[in-house]
């Protein structure tokens, strides 16, 4: 069954029977590259403009309400993967939950329509960004079954993290909240991006995206990543677009034109800092230490995936994405066992 698109063009509408919100907001877009962007900035700062990089880290907002909470039955912390013969032991992998907000710092009244897990491997050579479509029908602790994005409306970032932990059986270490306004400014800051668009589409307002390589920046980039209704598989195709845009932004940030240009670097560093709110445990020391331990070999070390689903259905009048439980179990084993490179090779998103 094809996904039933339930939002008007240009904004995200509330789902029928969705949980009530304290305050209705506008569209929400997750800037999924933020975690990686912050790490790249810290790495660049070590070699180029330390004072600017550290100033950007100092300005990042940190909120206690984003810090994952302990609870009975919570998945155990990750442990290092056993070292191969003659190889040094690696560090444990690190998992970040990335979610959107329409107002930076307004955590209580916000709503998240996009959700992603950023997994950093123990050897620090790979990062995997895994989209969890907002319509996934899952168990929300304390609230029964519902769409995964309802968890934010029911209990904010902490319930969203707990829902994701219970779905995957994997402990989430940190949380990053992203302001969609920063998306517009960051694509401009890096001088625009180029992506491959698999689906030609056009909105009523006359904004058209041709199939093939296209240039994006500013408001046009924002329209591109939020568009859902005109796409063949709606929310899933939108998530695919988000992943390709994320990688394009990362690629642009990692170019010499950005990192070796003090003006561009300063603008990008400041903009990344201004678009994120993180948990209190993501201190400057943590971010810097993790960044300096990274061994990414270009954008090829960054993998893009979607959490596995079986297809679409209607449940209680809701158009939902049906979770592939066996697929989730396989993904969980790879995340916990620090074997994501092997998992990615079998399930890679070839167009991202």
Describe what you observe in this structure.
- It is a single chain.
- With 352 residues, the protein is an alpha+beta fold.
- 37% of the residues lie in helices and 20% in strands.
- The chain has 11 helices and 15 strands.
- The strands form 5 sheets. A 7-stranded mixed β-sheet has the order 1-12-7-2-3-4-13, sandwiched between helices. The protein has a two-stranded antiparallel sheet with strand order 5-6. The protein has a two-stranded antiparallel ribbon with strand order 8-11.
- A hairpin with a 6-residue loop joins β3 and β4.
Provide the CATH top-level class of the domain at 34-68 and 89-186 and 235-347: Alpha Beta
Globally, the shape reads: globular
Q: Going across the major beta sheet, what is the strand order? A: 1-12-7-2-3-4-13
- Calculate Rg over CA atoms: 19 Å
Compute the number of helices.
Answer: 11
Biggest beta sheet attributes: 7 strands, mixed
> Got a strand count?
15
- Would you tell me the overall average pLDDT? 79
Q: Tell me which CATH architecture of the domain at 34-68 and 89-186 and 235-347 applies here.
A: 3-Layer(aba) Sandwich
Structural class: alpha+beta
Q: Determine the N-to-C terminus distance.
A: 25 Å
Strand content: 15-25%
- Give the uncertain stretches in residue-range form: 1-48
SSE string, helices as H and strands as E = HHEEEEEEHEHEEEEHHHHEHEEEHH
Query: What helical percentage do the residues reach?
Result: 25-40%
CATH topology of the domain at 34-68 and 89-186 and 235-347: Aminopeptidase
According to CATH, the homologous superfamily of the domain at 34-68 and 89-186 and 235-347 is: LCP protein
């Amino acid at each position: 069954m094809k996904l039933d698109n339930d939002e008007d063009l240009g904004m995200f509408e509330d789902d029928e029977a969705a949980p009530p919100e304290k305050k209705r907001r506008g569209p929400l877009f997750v800037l999924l590259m933020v975690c990686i962007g912050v790490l790249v900035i810290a790495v660049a700062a070590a070699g180029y403009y330390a004072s600017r990089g550290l100033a950007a880290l100092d300005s990042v907002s940190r909120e206690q309400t984003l810090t994952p909470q302990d609870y009975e039955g919570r998945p155990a912390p990750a442990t290092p993967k056993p070292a191969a013969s003659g190889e040094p032991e690696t560090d444990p992998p690190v998992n970040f939950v990335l979610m959107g907000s329409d107002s930076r710092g307004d955590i209580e009244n916000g709503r998240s329509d996009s959700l992603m897990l950023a997994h950093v491997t123990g050897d620090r050579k790979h990062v995997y960004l895994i989209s969890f479509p907002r319509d996934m029908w899952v168990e929300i602790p304390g609230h029964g079954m519902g769409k995964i994005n309802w968890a934010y409306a029911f209990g904010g970032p902490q319930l969203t993290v707990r829902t994701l932990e219970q779905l995957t059986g994997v402990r989430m270490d940190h949380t990053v909240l992203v302001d969609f306004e920063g998306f517009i400014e960051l694509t401009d800051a890096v001088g625009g991006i180029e992506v491959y668009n698999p689906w030609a589409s056009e909105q009523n307002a006359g904004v058209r995206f041709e199939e093939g390589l296209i240039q994006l920046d500013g408001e046009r980039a924002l329209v591109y990543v939020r568009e859902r209704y005109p796409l063949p598989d709606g929310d899933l195709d939108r998530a695919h677009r988000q992943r390709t845009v994320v990688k394009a932004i990362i690629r642009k940030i990692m170019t010499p034109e950005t990192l070796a240009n003090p003006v561009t670097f300063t603008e990008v560093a400041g903009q990344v800092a201004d678009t994120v709110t993180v948990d209190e445990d993501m201190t400057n020391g943590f971010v810097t230490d993790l960044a300096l331990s990274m061994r990414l070999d270009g954008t090829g070390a960054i993998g893009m995936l979607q959490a596995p689903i079986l297809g679409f259905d209607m449940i209680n009048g809701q158009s939902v994405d049906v979770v592939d439980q066996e697929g989730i179990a396989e993904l969980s084993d790879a995340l916990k066992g620090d074997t994501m490179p092997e998992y990615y090779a079998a399930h890679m998103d070839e167009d991202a």
